[in-house]
Design brief:
By secondary structure, the protein is of the alpha+beta class. The protein has four helices and eleven strands. The strands form two sheets. Strands 4-5-6-10-9-8-7 form a seven-stranded antiparallel sheet, sandwiched between helices. It has a four-stranded antiparallel sheet with strand order 1-2-3-11.
């Protein structure tokens, strides 16, 4: 990841040495799509796709950020209901005949409403995946942070999720 534009004209996130205490190898990424997040510095960022996702990937792991695609007006103001029933990133969980969910909870801190959960399902390739998901409301829109990885590597998924969600900020 670099702080300059790519040859194709696509903006790349700016990365910088962390001001706080980040784990070794992690960087603070100031993304041109309007957010900042902590991510492993070796992961590859993909351009925003047609369903509003920015993806950071490394082999079997994916960090998905959706910076405000869905509105509260169209989807209601309960992030737990949004996550469980409407969030597109969790459609594979809803569609899977082999799926599970634990730790689903809504968290309200002051005026900030969020929902988080842990999910498992079998992906299209037959792989069992473990997913940590956070949905939060920022300025009338839902932001989503989701980490997907192999079911047998829950600790790594949780580490990436914790770093990403702890320091996530919308910047516009």
């Amino acid at each position: 990841m670099t702080s300059s534009g790519s040859p194709g004209g696509e903006q790349q996130p700016q990365t910088s040495a962390p001001a706080g205490n980040l784990p070794k190898g992690y960087v603070l990424s100031k993304d041109p799509e309007g957010f900042q997040i902590v991510v492993d510095g070796t992961w590859q960022r993909r351009p925003i796709n047609d369903i509003g996702q920015v993806r950071y990937t490394d082999g079997d792991f994916t960090l998905i950020v959706v910076p405000g695609r869905d509105t509260v007006k169209a989807n209601g103001n309960d992030p737990l209901v949004y996550q469980r029933d409407k969030e597109r990133e969790l459609q594979p969980w809803r569609d899977s005949s082999w799926a599970g969910a634990t730790g689903l909870r809504r968290i309200d801190v002051g005026q900030q409403a969020t929902a988080e959960g842990q999910f498992t399902w079998q992906d299209s390739g037959g792989r069992e995946v473990y997913v940590r998901n956070l949905a939060l409301i920022v300025g009338g829109s839902y932001h989503v942070i989701q980490v997907i990885g192999p079911e047998d590597q829950r600790d790594k998924v949780t580490e990436v999720y914790r770093e990403a969600t702890t320091r996530y900020r919308a910047t516009r």
